[in-house]
Write a sequence for this structure.
């Protein structure tokens, strides 16, 4: 695909601006009615999905050149996918989110990358992670845990911690908790430790498609060599990347997020919650696990017209609109934890507001990610919850960072931490 | 078109550097407007570029911007949510400053006791409805749906919708406006203008609603409306929409005091009769001919597809061949929707009985499949919130409205067969969507209490295909000819098309209209409020010598 493939999407955009809001039917208040952080923070229409489609069209038709404003508007967006859900509420012939990604590929290919992304990508290329940390220290979180090393050994299940849970010392207890839960449930698995690579998903989203392919190819090869059939990850970004992007380059490996796996283990009676976790919490759906976490369906086809001008696709095109995201497994788990009370925010599931960290925003636009996260924290606080729970280290890191500048007492946890508290007496 | 550095600086001084831009990508994103391709040279999707886009945060900033436009002889063009080609600049030869009002987005007050709300221009219908429903109140959401600005429909356009029958249209419901005139004066209308608050649009204080509105609303052509008060209505339903179902088939459970029906009648005579009987019996809360927008031939299958999230438009070919769908399509051919809302269980039971009697007298029926729980709950949320109005574009991304001449049902039914025949004729070549000649949609009544209706023909074309666009334009021209040759004034399409005309052609058209004096009056109004001609021709006027 190239940007040209999305020219018809741009021409068929009606400038309805649905992509700026949550689905109207789900609106419960003025305060929490917005869907797109980008346009809400930056205001000009070009900072919405519809506006970016116009930018794409104007570039394709040589009406405009790439200016600093174009770069700013293209990359100051979390690729959260809220626009994709709301646009497709009423449309079957639009793929705004894919078009936004393609626009980034074009700019990066033509040498218009964001400077801060360039330095992140240097680290990605040399150290195989998005945090510019030393490659050889990637497996340190697992020191002393006696886990099977799949760079030397074999197993059908690999636990992939991801860059953030591997390196972030404030958060990597979640990786430890994850493996402990797997052990508790008697799961036979291994890790790649210091040989684990970045999934490549964040590189993909900031426009570096080739680098993504390199990373993906290496990971698929490593897993194949280790006899892996299933990859389990606690990171929503990795999950999306493995589940939706890897099959495009030939992966057939099954992908599960830890919350899906835990949900299954509970249903199979393999996990027992012994402890009460008395807490009132609210759950934040990570974009890449929720509305973008839908199953991959292979498709290659073309547009066809029937009844004169009605657009359909031959063969039938998969419809990624957030209807089949991973929404219930994390909620099932939270509801199953004794003592825990789950209260919902107004914008949930397909209508969730982004944490602010996605699409390279965390790496390049600190004011914007902080504002976006604080919007969500305020929404979480309005429920009366004492903690905001997520299933993605990027969301959690972002909330923690944003809170440093606010005056909230809200705590941040991963679902996995609460499961750990419920099954183990001791803390981390 | 470029903005003088000094003008840019003057404007930047008002709003700060973050809220003004003349970058070409920003300009283009405001020039790109739906319907432009039908009227612009070479089927371009872009209206003329604004010289810059500016975002004020207050009435005072709007006033200061207006003064700068006067100083530099620039057109001023406000846009709020913006969903029409007339929301952008209109003429290539004009320097137009686009004023995006999205930062003025607050609900300033909800006066529960006196049943009105005061809002800024970027408050949309869905937001206000969600807030006022918590207080047992409701608003009239216009036909274009939940995404639209209340200030825009109340102050600068017409403002009718499915609930207008019960609640009135927004140009009636506006109780006071704050208006920055093109000369930069701030005028507060009605009781607000005499310091008595927002409760009455006609005074004590300046009663200038007719001046502002003119023939069809100024649509950004006569200054900027910065606030308005809108009348709220009684809402006997739940305080919050607890919507269920999987998108896009959201469903709203039907409250015990409500009934949600799709009704059908055997003929257009019966259609007019049942409308009169509904008016006369004063039943119904939401009253609209909505689902026919997708065409009488394909519409029934489309709504069932939408109500099943596993389906796509790929299913439609097979579905329309099924005998049950064929039967349903015939059953729904002359159909409409009504939602009854009772103040009590006895009230709703009475309305139900009356409706049954009305159906018996007109030979009408309840369309069983569309009254089953799934479709009724879908219809319920669809019409209560109007959050799916982007479905106007569902077939291929381009839709235009033709006909829609307002009048009594007996008047409307006269143009229905002409409109039906015209669409079958114009779509026959395959350049327009062939969804059925009756793709006629419209309010049960465009005035409170009933009496007046109108039907708009939904014509779908592909904006990514030049030949299809041309067919859309030709359809509009043909619809005008069809109307005139049958003694009916032109409809909505004439307004759409006029955006692409030269001034002289518009003046000729206005001079030959039924009441050209309106446009002479409007010239005088414009001379008084816009001496430097900074508003554009969306507020239509006739030169003195016409
Ligand atoms: S991208 Fe979709 S939702 Fe956004 S303005 Fe365009 S058509 Fe509307
Ligand atoms: S992906 Fe998210 S931030 Fe980007 S345009 Fe869409 S809704 Fe806005």
């Amino acid at each position: 695909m190239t940007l040209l493939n999305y020219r018809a999407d741009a021409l068929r955009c009606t400038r309805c601006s649905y992509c700026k809001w949550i689905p109207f039917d789900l609106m419960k208040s003025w305060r929490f009615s917005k869907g797109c952080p980008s346009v809400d923070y930056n205001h000009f229409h070009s900072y919405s999905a519809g506006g970016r489609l116009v930018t794409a069209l104007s570039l394709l038709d040589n009406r405009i050149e790439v200016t600093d404003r174009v770069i700013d508007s293209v990359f100051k967006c979390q690729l959260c996918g809220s626009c994709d859900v709301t646009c497709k509420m009423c449309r079957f012939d639009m793929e705004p989110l894919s078009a936004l990604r393609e626009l980034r590929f074009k700019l990066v290919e033509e040498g218009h990358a964001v400077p801060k992304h360039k330095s992140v990508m240097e680290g990605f290329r040399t150290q195989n992670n998005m945090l510019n940390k030393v490659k050889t220290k990637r497996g340190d979180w697992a020191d002393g845990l006696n886990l099977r090393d799949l760079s030397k050994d074999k197993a059908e299940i690999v636990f992939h911690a991801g860059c953030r849970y591997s390196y972030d010392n404030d958060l990597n207890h979640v990786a430890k908790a994850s493996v402990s839960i797997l052990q508790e449930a008697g799961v036979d698995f291994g890790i790649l430790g210091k040989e684990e690579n970045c999934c490549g998903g964040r590189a993909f989203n900031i426009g570096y498609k080739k680098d993504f392919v390199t990373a993906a190819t290496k990971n698929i090869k490593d897993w194949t060599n280790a006899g892996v059939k299933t990859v389990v990850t606690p990171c929503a970004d990795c999950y999306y990347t493995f589940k939706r992007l890897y099959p495009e380059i030939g992966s057939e490996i099954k992908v599960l997020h830890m919350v899906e796996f835990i949900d299954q283990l509970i249903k199979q009676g393999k996990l027992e919650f012994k402890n009460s976790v008395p807490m009132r919490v609210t759950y934040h759906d990570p974009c890449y696990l929720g509305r973008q976490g839908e199953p991959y369906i292979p498709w290659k086809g073309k547009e066809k017209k029937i009844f004169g001008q009605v657009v359909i696709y031959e063969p039938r095109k998969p419809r990624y609109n957030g209807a089949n995201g991973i929404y219930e497994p994390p909620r099932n788990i939270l509801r199953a934890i004794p003592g825990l009370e789950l209260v919902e925010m107004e914008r949930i599931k397909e209508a969730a507001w982004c944490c602010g960290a996605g699409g390279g925003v965390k790496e390049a636009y600190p004011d914007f990610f902080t504002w976006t996260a604080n919007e969500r924290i305020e929404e979480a606080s309005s429920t009366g919850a004492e903690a905001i729970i997520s299933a993605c280290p990027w969301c959690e890191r972002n909330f923690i960072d944003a809170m440093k500048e606010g005056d909230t007492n809200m705590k941040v946890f991963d679902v996995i931490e609460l499961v750990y508290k419920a099954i183990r007496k001791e803390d981390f | 078109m470029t903005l003088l550095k000094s003008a840019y600086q003057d404007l930047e001084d008002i709003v700060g550097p973050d809220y003004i831009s003349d970058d070409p990508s920003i300009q283009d994103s405001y020039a790109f407007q739906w319907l432009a391709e039908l009227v612009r040279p070479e089927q371009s999707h872009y209206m003329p570029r604004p010289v810059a886009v500016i975002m004020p945060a207050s009435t005072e900033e709007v006033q200061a911007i207006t003064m700068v436009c006067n100083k530099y002889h620039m057109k001023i063009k406000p846009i709020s949510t913006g969903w029409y080609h007339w929301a952008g600049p209109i003429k290539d030869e004009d320097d137009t400053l686009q004023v995006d009002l999205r930062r003025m987005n607050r609900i300033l007050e909800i006066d529960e006791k006196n049943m009105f709300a005061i809002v800024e221009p970027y408050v949309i219908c869905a937001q206000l409805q969600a807030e006022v429903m918590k207080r047992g109140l409701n608003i009239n959401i216009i036909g274009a749906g939940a995404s639209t600005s209340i200030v825009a429909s109340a102050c600068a356009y017409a403002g009718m919708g499915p609930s207008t029958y019960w609640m009135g249209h927004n140009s009636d419901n506006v109780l006071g406006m704050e208006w920055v005139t093109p000369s930069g004066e701030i005028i507060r209308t009605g009781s607000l203008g005499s310091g008595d608050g927002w409760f009455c649009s006609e005074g004590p204080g300046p009663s200038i609603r007719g001046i502002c509105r003119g023939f069809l609303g100024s649509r950004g052509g006569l200054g900027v409306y910065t606030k308005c008060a809108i009348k709220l209505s009684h809402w006997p339903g739940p305080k919050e929409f607890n919507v269920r179902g999987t998108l896009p088939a959201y469903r709203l459970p039907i409250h015990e005091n409500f009934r949600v029906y799709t009704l059908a009648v055997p003929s257009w005579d019966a259609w007019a009769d049942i409308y009169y009987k509904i008016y006369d019996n004063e039943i119904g809360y939401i009253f609209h001919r909505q689902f026919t927008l997708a065409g009488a031939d394909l519409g029934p299958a489309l709504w069932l597809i939408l109500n099943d999230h596993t389906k796509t438009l790929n299913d439609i070919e097979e579905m329309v061949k099924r005998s049950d769908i064929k039967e349903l399509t015939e059953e729904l051919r002359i159909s409409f929707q009504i939602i009854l809302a009772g103040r009590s269980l006895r009230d709703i039971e009475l309305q139900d009985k009356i409706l049954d009697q009305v159906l018996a007298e007109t030979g009408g029926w309840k369309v069983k499949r569309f009254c089953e729980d799934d479709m009724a709950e879908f219809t319920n949320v669809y019409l209560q919130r109007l959050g799916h109005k982007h479905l106007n574009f569902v077939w291929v991304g381009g839709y235009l409205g033709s006909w829609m001449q307002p009048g009594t049902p007996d008047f409307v039914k006269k143009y229905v067969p002409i409109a039906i025949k015209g669409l079958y004729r114009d779509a026959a070549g395959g350049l327009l969507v062939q969804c059925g000649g009756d793709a006629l949609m419209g309010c049960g009544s465009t005035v409170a209490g009933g009496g007046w209706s109108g039907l708009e023909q939904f014509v779908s074309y592909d904006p990514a295909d030049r030949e299809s666009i041309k067919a859309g334009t030709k359809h509009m021209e043909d619809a005008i000819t069809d109307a005139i040759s049958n003694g009916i004034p032109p409809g909505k399409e004439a307004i759409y098309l006029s955006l692409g005309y030269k001034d002289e052609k518009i003046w000729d058209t206005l001079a030959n209209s039924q009441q050209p004096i309106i446009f002479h009056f409007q010239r005088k109004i414009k001379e008084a409020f816009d001496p430097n001609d900074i508003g554009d021709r969306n507020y239509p006027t006739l030169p003195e010598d016409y």
The domain at 116-267 of chain A is CATH 3.40.50.1860 (Rossmann fold).
